[in-house]
Amino acid sequence: MLSRTLLLFGLFSFCFAPVSGQKTPTRPAPTKNTHWPSFRGEGANGIAEGYQTPLHWNADTADNKPAQNVLWKTPIPGLSHCSPVIWGDRLFIVSVMSGSGKNDLKVGLYGDIMPVEDDSVHVWKMYCLNKNTGKILWERVVCEGKPKVKRHTKATHANTTMATDGKVLVTMLGSEGMYAYDLNGKPLWKRDFGILDAGFYMVPTAQWGFASSPILYKGRVIVQCDVQKNSFLTALNSRTGDTIWRTPREDVPTWSTPAIYTDNNRAYIAVNGWKHIGGYDFLTGKEVWRLKGGGDIPVPTPISANGLVFITNAHGAMAPIYAVRTSATGDLVPPDEATSNRNIAWSVRKGGAYMQTPLVYGEYLYVCRDNGALYCYDAESGKEVYSVRLGTGRTGFTASGVAAGGKIYYTSEEGDVYVVRAGKEFTVLATNAMGEVCMATPAISEGKLFYRTQGHVVAIGEKP
Predict the structure, then answer these.
(1) How many angstroms separate the CA atoms of 55 and 62, rounded?
(2) How far apart are CA 23 and CA 298, in angstroms?
(3) Would you give per-residue pLDDT tens digits along the chain (464 residues)?
(4) Are 242 and 249 in contact (CB under 8 A)?
(5) CA gap 239, 343 in Å, rounded
(6) The CATH number of 2-460 is which of 3.30.1300.10, 2.160.20.60, 2.130.10.10, 1.20.1300.10?
(7) Alpha-carbon distance values, 277 to 88, 270, 272, 283, 310 (Å)
(8) Exposed, middle or buried by CB within 10 Å (0-12, 13-18, 19+), for 229?
(9) Whole-angstrom Cα distance, residue 303 to residue 333?
(10) Under a CB-based contact definition with an 8 Å cutoff, are residues 125 and 140 in contact?
(11) How much is the pTM?
(12) CA–CA separation, 424 and 66 (whole Å)
């Protein structure tokens, strides 16, 4: 059990025709795809259309290899799994520097659950970069001090991704608190939620850090805090940080980011969990539905498409995928495989993901496991279309897949990016090197890919 547990820590992204054979995605994308405002973009769907995105590149310039389609590469000190977020021509990230110099990550598939011992003073910084040039426009010290909770050897003290609506920029640093700025770096407000220990529930000394990212929707900041004690889901006023509602939760620690979905023009919040996967009313925080069971270390973010909310997790006896109807209410009971019921369109008991958030693109659901096993399902029926493996099976995959123009981008922890043709027939179109450890999900904006590697932020795009 304990050796398997460590697979968790990838803790903690002009119009043209799609690639041949790709069915046109049914979900509209934001106009011109300028913004990528939170984890995996708008609605965490991971999709950006409207521009041609690169197929081939090389960012690994070791041994005098020539760079290809690297638009810029900006060094960023410290460690972070914070994915880039973008608003207009500005890109934002957070990073944290250890006073001891222990800025190392141990990647791969291994079985050590114990945390890094480092009680030195750390400095958390927020950076704003020009999206087009990589120039650092401003940086701010968000906070500094000894971390209140330890991190895992594969995690950082800045696992979460920021969120912005163009007016407010919010970062959640777990036990170090939540901070809000305007887009020019002016502090607006901060909140202290106390100690948020999201470690292994079976071994309390195995502290792993906090990883649930905030989301911004209609003037509210939504935060899921599933921790060892006093878990909750809350909505804050994005202008002031004041609590609008706070709903207690009974669950083991999770690392999943919540997601907004709608049904009959009413907004709801979907959350992952083990004891309590659920849907909540966005306005009131009241529970709408709940579902228990599955993997006991939930990480992937729920996503929604075409009237369904897709939830997956994996660890222990199960690795399920649930396709929950957006109209669901009450206590949900999963149907037998290949069947459905009033609340759940379909489910599978094995085939779900441990680390990565899945992707619905066109008519298909793509689920990539932490060892590179990639499953493709018909999103409406749950019928398996194919299952293949990216890489050798000995390489970890933590960053979630993103898609554009009929292509899906999957990134290994070693920094190899597999470009997969979307559709019912599996094809790897290209494999590209980032040249560094890469565990954060990339962002896409105006046809460019933006990666947070261990030491840099890198912009990838077609050069003239």
Answers:
(1) 21
(2) 31
(3) 433 333 344 333 323 233 334 443 344 344 456 899 999 999 999 999 999 999 999 999 988 889 999 999 999 999 999 999 999 999 999 999 999 988 889 998 887 888 899 999 999 999 999 999 999 999 999 999 999 999 999 999 999 999 999 999 999 999 999 999 999 999 999 999 999 999 999 999 999 999 999 999 999 999 999 999 999 999 999 999 999 999 999 999 999 999 999 999 999 999 999 999 999 999 999 999 999 988 899 999 999 999 999 999 998 888 999 999 999 999 999 888 778 999 999 999 988 999 999 999 999 999 999 999 999 999 999 999 999 999 998 899 999 999 999 999 999 999 999 999 999 999 999 999 999 999 999 999 999 999 999 999 999 999 87
(4) no
(5) 36
(6) 2.130.10.10
(7) 34, 8, 5, 19, 11
(8) exposed
(9) 20
(10) yes
(11) 0.92
(12) 35
Cα separation, 100 vs 60, whole angstroms:
28
Query: What's the CA gap between 405 and 419, in Å, rounded?
Result: 11
Work out whether strand 122-130 and strand 136-145 pair parallel, antiparallel, or are unpaired: antiparallel
Question: What does the DSSP 8-state code read for residue 388?
Answer: E
Handedness of CA 290, 293, 297, 302 (dihedral sign): negative
